[in-house]
Design goal:
Helices cover 45% and strands 21% of the residues. By secondary structure, the protein is of the alpha/beta class. The strands form two sheets. The chain has a five-stranded parallel beta sheet, sandwiched between helices. The protein has a four-stranded mixed beta sheet with strand order 4-3-6-5. Strand 5 and strand 6 form a beta hairpin. The longest helix has 21 residues. The N and C termini lie close together (9 Å). Bound molecules: guanosine-5'-monophosphate. Guanosine-5'-monophosphate binds next to strand 5, strand 6 and helix 4.
Length: 193
């Protein structure tokens, strides 16, 4: 019997360094695929369609949502984001692990589905540091920054609902912890066969 892959869900408030951590992790570990989400937001400089996200219009997103093509979806800062479901099951059924880098709303939707998944939350070292990182992302001044900070506060509150939390203080340490979690969950899954 071939074992099914493990679904790893990673969330973090914006500015916690989650994307860099996940990208490095994928280079360091074999057998894990990143699910590429669909989003209605515009690409940022350097982002590539199909690699970072699949960029689609709101109309297309809503069409796909009504066809129930998403395993989960959420609205974040006025834009839609969703995980295409078929791809995820394709990987899992072939025994490949899957990494979903999604926000807390989406993660809680997956929790409600009662799927077997491992939930990991990345925390910024402290609030001051988060504020500094968010300043560079807040394109619309102080109001935008305050909105991002209050959303981050609410998201951090949700960390207790996750199986693991990692503080991204020193990047390499955070990366080793993340890797150790993946390897240990794989061992646990193997011992259950
Ligand atoms: P960004 O626009 O900065 O890339 O992402 C904003 C937020 O949306 C991040 O927390 C990111 O993890 C989350 N996100 C990205 N893809 C998905 C998805 O498919 N579903 C959900 N629920 N959140 C997503």
């Amino acid at each position: 019997m071939k074992k099914q892959g493990i679904l790893f869900i990673i969330s973090a408030p914006s500015g916690s360094g989650k994307t860099t951590l996940c990208n490095k992790l994928l280079q360091k570990i074999d057998g894990i695929a990143r699910s590429v989400s669909m989003t209605t937001r515009s690409p940022r400089p350097g982002e590539k369609d199909g690699r970072d996200y699949i960029f689609i219009t709101k109309e297309e997103f809503l069409k796909r949502r009504s066809r129930k093509e998403f395993l989960e979806w959420a609205e974040v800062f006025g834009e839609y984001y969703g995980t295409p479901e078929k791809k995820v099951w394709g990987y899992l059924n072939k025994g490949r692990d899957v990494l979903l880098s999604i926000d807390v709303q989406g993660a809680m939707k997956i929790k409600k589905l009662n799927l077997k998944a491992v939930f990991i939350f990345i925390l910024p070292p402290n609030f001051e540091e988060l504020k500094n990182r968010l300043k560079s992302r807040s394109t619309e001044g102080i109001e935008d920054l305050n909105l991002r900070l209050s959303v981050a506060r609410r998201e951090i509150e949700m960390a207790k609902k996750y199986d693991y939390t990692i503080i991204n203080d020193r990047f390499n340490e955070a990366l080793s912890k993340l890797r150790a979690i993946i390897l240990s969950e794989r061992r646990k899954a193997l011992s259950k066969i």
